[in-house]
Design a protein that fits this description.
Layout lengths: L4 H21 L1 H7 L8 H37 L4 H9 L11
């Protein structure tokens, strides 16, 4: 099917902005710093341990959102794609995998 490249480029830009917002939110950093006011406490120690554990999946998530943007931008450059081709590209991205498998 023919696709409107302008719509796909707009969508790709929105996806890129979303990934940037997720990354800029720095959830792992906020978790790590959440109990800094309770210096020396078990709670502070616990969240300091959790920060890096949260960082890995959050970074993977944003990388996968950026991969989705690349897929959409690539399709926008060719102007033609089948639903199956685009779905296959999204299924290779963890967040877009409808089967739920990693």
């Amino acid at each position: 099917m023919d696709v409107d490249p302008t719509i796909l480029r707009t969508f790709a830009n929105e996806v890129e902005e979303t990934a940037g917002s997720v990354r800029a939110a720095d959830l792992a950093g906020k978790v790590s710093a959440s109990f800094d006011a309770v210096e020396g406490s078990a709670a502070q120690w616990m969240v300091k341990q959790m920060g890096p554990l949260i960082a890995t999946p959050m970074n993977k998530f944003t990388d996968e959102i950026f991969a989705m943007r690349v897929s959409v931008a690539t399709v926008a450059n060719t102007f033609q794609v089948s639903d199956e081709e685009l779905a296959a590209q999204f299924n290779n991205i963890h967040v877009g995998n409808a089967s739920g498998k990693n």
